[in-house]
UniProtKB/TrEMBL annotation:
<dbReference type="Pfam" id="PF00370">
    <property type="entry name" value="FGGY_N"/>
</dbReference>
<dbReference type="Pfam" id="PF02782">
    <property type="entry name" value="FGGY_C"/>
</dbReference>
<protein>
    <submittedName>
        <fullName>ATPase</fullName>
    </submittedName>
</protein>
<keyword id="KW-0119">Carbohydrate metabolism</keyword>
<feature type="domain" description="Carbohydrate kinase FGGY C-terminal">
    <location>
        <begin position="279"/>
        <end position="478"/>
    </location>
</feature>
<dbReference type="GO" id="GO:0016301">
    <property type="term" value="F:kinase activity"/>
</dbReference>
<keyword id="KW-0808">Transferase</keyword>
<comment type="similarity">
    <text>Belongs to the FGGY kinase family.</text>
</comment>
<dbReference type="InterPro" id="IPR050406">
    <property type="entry name" value="FGGY_Carb_Kinase"/>
</dbReference>
<keyword id="KW-0859">Xylose metabolism</keyword>
<dbReference type="InterPro" id="IPR043129">
    <property type="entry name" value="ATPase_NBD"/>
</dbReference>
<dbReference type="InterPro" id="IPR018485">
    <property type="entry name" value="FGGY_C"/>
</dbReference>
<keyword id="KW-0418">Kinase</keyword>
<feature type="domain" description="Carbohydrate kinase FGGY N-terminal">
    <location>
        <begin position="19"/>
        <end position="211"/>
    </location>
</feature>
<dbReference type="InterPro" id="IPR018484">
    <property type="entry name" value="FGGY_N"/>
</dbReference>
<dbReference type="GO" id="GO:0042732">
    <property type="term" value="P:D-xylose metabolic process"/>
</dbReference>
Length: 539
């Protein structure tokens, strides 16, 4: 091995490493880093939600199968590259898609299939709780799922003794601790940014609801304990080590960071935990988050109020839909290439198609085309269900460049609805906005489209391709540096020498998106009609 490999091998053997594993909507990803935040090994596992009795879910066995798969990828890479078994890890952290509903009885048994954030069957709970608290409780939040089950008088509801998120569930099974990072907890139930724990007044209001008071539990007894970043959150038990690494090589006793949500890891991965900074995390869903200087002036249903991993209030525009429909169209082009004997890599396929969207052949407003990316329901657009839809005017300039521009404009349109409320209606100030996620892997294109949508410069950092798993690994490593405020630690240590590329909004793009977005909103009844006239599963 080279000298540099020897140095990494020594860090691995001495446990100067941190492992982050994030359960995304379509991928489970693991990233092992050293004590200087350099990536040593990665793992990847694909999965997808599916409908169970009309609700989006994931198989529980795939949670553990995916976890073990990505860990095995990391361990195999370490052995292949550095000639040693992965016996020790310094710190571990788990993160996952936020919200949703995993409910358990007193014996720790799952009561109903995992209900993910994609479900929008909780509109009644969202409306009642938002009015009760005068605080936006989105449909996908865990408390909305719990309350909707109460309102529906579901048979399991009296047996609930604990409920949590996906990250909290994995952490609990590996450590025995019923805790949650404060950022992830803020997507279960509102957090008081002063106390860094749940809003006590809201808990009392919730428990006082007649239908809740009739239950054999109190809300506070069901929720995981919220922890700020840097707080020890337990150790990997012997049972947990065997669950993570069935080969039996990994030692127990590893320190674990508070499990976080993908919003928090996105903030960390983009150095966006300080006030007036923000990030756009783009994947199957997309959310734009800005750390606020103060609470919003009034109830804003389009804006979620969550916290950073340090417990500071942040405003989020969250759209359930982003790349699913876009990826489906890309796969169609891949099939066409294969029919003609071509073999195209993802990088080349996405790169060529994306670049066409900003080529000279593309009209600023996408030439009279509209793309609605709604695979699932979308609260921001007032949709309980979704139907991916492409529409064009009879005289639209129907070419590949405009088609791809419409796809990208359409993907970024739902999140723009909530972002406009923050910046236009609430006057939220933003010093920097960083994009991260796979869509930014193709240079320039997504940055330029997003800069047009938000009319603000968009920065992409060199760590953007690592995403949330890398951010979770950084949070795990932060356990050793918790005496320094998280924002300072990120500024002065993690990102001290980070490089980035910024795309400023171009006036033609901004005006083109404005025209597209106006048509997008005006024609939403077409999408609603598609939902009404194309029932899922109809023969």
């Amino acid at each position: 091995m080279s000298d540099s490999q020897d140095q990494v091998a020594e860090k691995i053997s001495s446990g100067r490493t941190s492992l982050g594993i994030e359960f995304g909507s379509t991928r489970i990803k693991a990233v092992l880093i050293d004590d200087e935040r350099n990536t040593i090994a990665t793992g990847d596992y694909g999965w997808q939600s599916h409908l169970v009795d009309g609700l989006w879910s994931y198989d529980v066995d795939k949670i553990w199968r995916g976890l073990q798969s990505v860990y095995a990828d990391v361990a195999d890479c370490v052995e292949a590259q550095y000639g040693q078994k992965l016996v020790r890890i310094g710190q571990i952290g788990f993160s996952a898609m936020m919200h949703g509903y995993l409910a358990f009885n007193e014996d720790g048994e799952l009561l109903v299939p995992f209900r993910t954030w994609q479900n929008t069957n909780t509109s009644e709970a969202h409306e009642r709780l938002s009015q009760l608290f005068q605080y936006n409780i989105p449909e996908r939040w865990s408390i909305a799922h719990l309350y909707q089950a109460v309102l529906n008088d579901e048979p399991h509801i009296g047996s609930v003794r604990y409920f949590t998120t996906l990250a909290g569930y994995v952490h609990w099974k590996l450590t025995g601790r019923k805790v949650l990072g404060v950022g992830d907890a803020s997507g279960m139930f509102p957090i008081d940014p002063q106390t860094k724990t749940y809003e006590q007044d809201f808990i009392e209001q919730f428990d006082a609801l007649p239908e809740v008071a009739a239950q054999p539990w109190k809300l506070e007894d069901l929720l995981p304990e919220p922890l700020v970043a840097g707080t020890p959150a337990g150790e990997l038990t012997a049972e947990g080590a065997a669950l993570l690494d069935p080969s039996g090589v990994l030692q127990s006793g590893v320190a674990l960071a508070p499990p976080e949500g993908d919003a928090g890891t996105g903030m960390v991965a983009t150095n966006s935990v300080r006030r007036r900074t923000g990030n756009v995390s783009a994947g199957t869903s997309i959310f734009a988050t800005v750390v606020l200087e103060h609470k919003l002036s009034t109830l804003r249903p389009e804006v979620d109020l969550v916290t950073t991993p340090a417990g500071d209030l942040a405003g989020m525009s969250h759209a359930n839909n982003f790349t699913s429909d876009l990826n489906a169209w890309i796969n169609l082009f891949r099939e066409f290439a294969q029919l003609n004997g071509g073999s195209v890599s993802d990088a080349d396929l996405y790169g060529e198609l994306f670049r066409s969207a900003i080529s000279e052949q593309a009209d600023p407003d996408a030439g009279g085309m509209l793309a609605y990316p709604f695979r699932t329901g979308e609260f921001l657009a007032g949709l309980a269900e979704g139907r991916p839809l492409f529409v064009r005017e009879p005289e639209a300039r129907f070419n590949l460049a405009n088609f791809m521009r419409a796809q990208l404009f359409g993907a970024f349109s739902p999140v723009t609805i909530g972002m406009n409320v923050m910046t236009h209606d609430e006057g939220v100030q933003i010093d920097s906005l960083v994009g991260h996620g796979g869509i930014f892997a193709t240079p320039v294109v997504a940055q330029r489209i997003l800069a047009a949508a938000f009319d603000t410069p968009i920065r992409v950092m060199t760590t953007a391709s690592e995403g949330g798993a890398w951010g979770m690994a950084v949070l795990a490593g932060y356990l050793r540096h918790a005496d320094t405020p998280l924002a300072d630690y990120l500024d002065d240590v993690v990102f001290a020498n980070a490089q980035s590329v910024t795309e400023d909004p171009q006036s033609a793009d901004v005006e083109g998106f404005r025209m597209f977005f106006a048509r997008f909103m005006q024609a939403l009844p077409v999408e609603r009609t598609a939902v009404e006239c194309m029932p899922i599963g109809a023969e």
